[in-house]
C-alpha cells in the first residue's frame, strides 16, 4: 500500500515538474504571429541608384506599418529623398512556425510625406511595387531571432530588423 502511494506521489511531482518546464520553455519561445516592432537600415542598389534607408517596422496581429526614409543617389549625386509610410495586412503562409515562416504583406495605404521629393519614375526603378503603390503584395521569409529578425525576399536577405525595446 505504501509503495502505491509513493509511486503516485512521484508521478504527481514529475508531472508537475514537466508542466512547469513546458510552460517555461513556451515562454522562452514566445514570438508573436510576427515580429512586433523593429528598426533597420537597408540599402537598395538597383539600376545605378543607391538608397540607404532607415526602416521602422511594426506589426500588430494581422496589420502592420512600415515607415522608411533616406536619400537616393545616382552616381553619388543626390537625386531625391524618400519619406513614406505603408499600411499593410499580414498573412502567414501554411507551414510557417513561430520562429520562421513565409509571410505575405499586402499594401493598402501608401502615404508620401511632404519631405519626399523623389519622382515616382525613379522610385519605381529602385523599389518593389509594394513600397510604392497601394494594393501590391510582397512575400518575405522571416527568421525570428532573440534580438530581431532577418527578412529575405527571393532568396536574398533584404535587411536585419532589430527589436525595439519597450520601456
Descriptive report:
This protein has 167 residues and is α+β, with helices and mostly antiparallel strands. The chain folds into two domains: 1-30; 37-163. Helix content is 21%, strand content 51%. It contains two helices and eight strands. The chain has helices at 2-29, 120-126; strands at residues 37-46, 49-60, 63-74, 77-92, 100-112, 137-144, 148-153, 156-163. The protein has an eight-stranded antiparallel β-barrel. A hairpin with a 7-residue loop joins strand 4 and strand 5. Mean pLDDT is 80; it is low at 8-34.
N-to-C series of helices and strands:
HEEEEEHEEE
Number of strands: 8
Report the radius of gyration as a whole number of Å.
22 Å
Strand content: over 45%
Largest sheet: 8 strands, antiparallel, barrel
What is the assembly state of the chains in this entry?
single chain
Q: What coarse outline follows from CA principal-axis ratios?
A: globular
Class derived from helix and strand content = alpha+beta
CA distance, first residue to last residue = 56 Å
The side-by-side strand order for the widest beta sheet comes to: 1-2-3-4-5-6-7-8
Calculate the mean pLDDT score and round it: 80
> Given the structure, what is the number of helices?
2
Runs in which pLDDT lies below 50 for 5 or more consecutive residues are: 8-34
Q: How many domain units?
A: 2
What share of residues is helical?
10-25%
Amino acid at each position: 500500500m505504501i509503495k502505491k502511494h509513493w509511486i503516485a506521489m512521484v508521478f504527481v511531482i514529475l508531472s508537475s515538474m514537466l508542466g512547469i518546464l513546458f510552460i517555461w520553455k513556451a515562454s522562452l519561445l514566445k514570438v508573436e504571429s510576427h515580429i512586433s516592432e523593429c528598426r533597420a537600415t537597408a540599402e537598395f542598389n538597383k539600376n545605378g541608384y543607391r538608397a540607404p534607408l532607415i526602416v521602422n517596422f511594426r506589426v500588430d496581429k494581422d496589420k502592420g506599418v512600415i515607415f522608411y526614409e533616406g536619400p537616393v543617389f545616382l552616381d553619388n549625386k543626390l537625386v531625391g529623398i524618400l519619406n513614406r509610410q505603408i499600411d499593410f495586412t499580414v498573412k502567414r503562409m501554411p507551414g510557417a512556425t513561430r520562429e520562421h515562416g513565409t509571410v505575405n504583406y499586402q499594401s493598402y495605404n501608401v502615404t508620401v510625406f511632404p519631405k519626399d521629393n523623389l519622382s515616382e519614375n525613379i522610385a519605381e526603378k529602385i523599389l518593389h511595387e509594394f513600397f510604392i503603390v497601394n494594393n501590391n503584395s510582397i512575400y518575405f521569409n522571416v527568421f525570428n531571432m532573440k534580438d530581431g529578425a532577418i527578412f529575405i525576399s527571393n532568396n536574398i536577405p533584404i535587411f536585419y530588423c532589430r527589436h525595439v525595446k519597450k520601456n
